[in-house]
Amino acid sequence: MAFTVVNGWTVPGFTHERELGDGVAGRVVLAVDDLTSTKVAIKYLDGALRVDEGFLTRFRAVARGLSQLEDPNVVDLYDFVETADGAAVVMQFVEGVSLRRMLAAQGPTGPLAALSMLGGTLLGLAAVHEHDPIVHGALRPANIMIDGEGNARLTDFATARPGTEAQFGPAYAAPELWDGAPATVASDLYAATAVFYECLTGRPPYAGRNMARLHREAPIPAEEVPGPLRDLIHRGLAKEAAWRPASAADYLAALEDAAVSAYGPSWEAQGRGRLTELAAQAARQPEPPKPRSSRSSGLNPVVAARRAAEQRGSRAPWIVAAVTVLIVAVAGAGAATLLKDDKKQPAEPTTAQSSTPRPTPPAGGVDPGPLVAKIDRAVAASPGAVFNYRQSGCCGFPASGKGTLSLGPGGESSFSLTLAGAGSTRKPVRALIVQNRLYVRAGKRWKSSPLGGRGYPAAADQVRQGSSVTNLTLLLRSATVLKTRTGAIYEGSAPVRTLSRAPGVGPMYARMAQDTGVNEITFAIKLDAGHRPVKFWVRAGAEKGRNQLLRGSYTRWGRKPAVQVPASAS
């Protein structure tokens, strides 16, 4: 069924189903691609934007960059369609609710869900900010979607005309935007922090008639948030852009450190679970009324909608979420894992599934042999993934990497990644790892060095070892305790004496044990329905105190082209 959207014009090749919303940049409809039957969301740009050539020139460049980006925390942009009759953005349709709707229906999220939301937002911003000069410009709860798995997904990039960003979201606009400065990475981080503050308290940091003065001069109200999170608020809402974190990746590292210190390594699983639950509850409640325009008054749309709902007495009692979230205890540690259950689970392996006699399974009852075999077959069929990895803890341990890995014969991995470490290697660099060598981009050339030693080669070696699938299967095979309550999340512990003898990763575990004084390593690994790893964490030491932690995730498993030695390497 087609219907009039903007002056009677609709994007050809799509059948419209219903209107999804009407924002300051234009109306959004749910549509179906007539050729593929894929559901999409189409934003029809407001007439004032369609005749602004300066805006269109900038947005075309942004659209080209976004169309090449695939990130789980960013809504995919498929196409930007322009004709003499109209302009529209065709993008991914996300099953979920906006953060604006969730806050209006549910109020404050609590610290763990707020941290999970901010973490996802920063991951999305980090991915987009790599595509210079793309910034969001007017981030606010209305353009953060929470999907059915608790992911925060960003949309509506650069839909505010330059110079008008503060009017699009006055409650979240950085001080410099009110002075007419262009939107930057720093202003995006300010807006993300203001949204984070609202998740914690139920209201944005500033509200009143003179929003510009409040953002420029009012004290940062950090005392209203939990103590362990106040430093994040102070850093993100700093009045001067130079005082804020240098990048979304830097801010995310500070967030993870604060979250683990305050709530333990299971904070992400608990936060994502709570965010999923709140979004599911909000989806079952009636859509809140559209708030009045906030451009002149400075009144936050979320607060206005929530106040209207409260006046009608429409806030429903909290009920059990439709999405089941699983929190399981880590063996011997008493801490919940960071991994949420999937809807479709592979069958739990038992000794009865093996055709030959096997030794007694480790405590917990899971036989690692058949499980590891399934993982190996699954990964061999899809030998590559997008990965994100981070090491943290005591003793000069930090290192991080994110990018693409490709598995060759024998499980040897090659990487194309952004790499960072600690101290002098804290600055992220573009790097490749091929055949035990690191290649770092330096201008137009690549500098090569063997893995190990100090600096970036040492950080690269740690990332390669810790994020490898062979490391995860080693943990499973070596476990003296291995259990599952879902058939998708496996948790257990393995002795250091066994792990430290393993080829490749053995020295890493020996060093972790020496630094922390432990004899066992605890771990949790989540698999998808096809037995491919999707998330893991590994810890040496107690949940709180002197410890070292490895965390990682994998997405978009499939065949990836092998990473090649760059032609300009020296």
From TrEMBL:
Keywords: ATP-binding, Kinase, Membrane, Nucleotide-binding, Serine/threonine-protein kinase, Transferase, Transmembrane, Transmembrane helix
PROSITE patterns: PROTEIN_KINASE_DOM
Group of enzyme by EC: transferase
Region described as Disordered: spans on this chain: 279-306, 340-369
Domain of life assignment: Bacteria
Feature: compositional bias, Polar residues: 348-357
Pfam assignment, any one: Pkinase
EC code: 2.7.11.1
Annotated transmembrane regions: 316-339
Residue ranges constituting the Protein kinase domain according to the UniProt record: 14-260
Protein name per its UniProtKB record: non-specific serine/threonine protein kinase
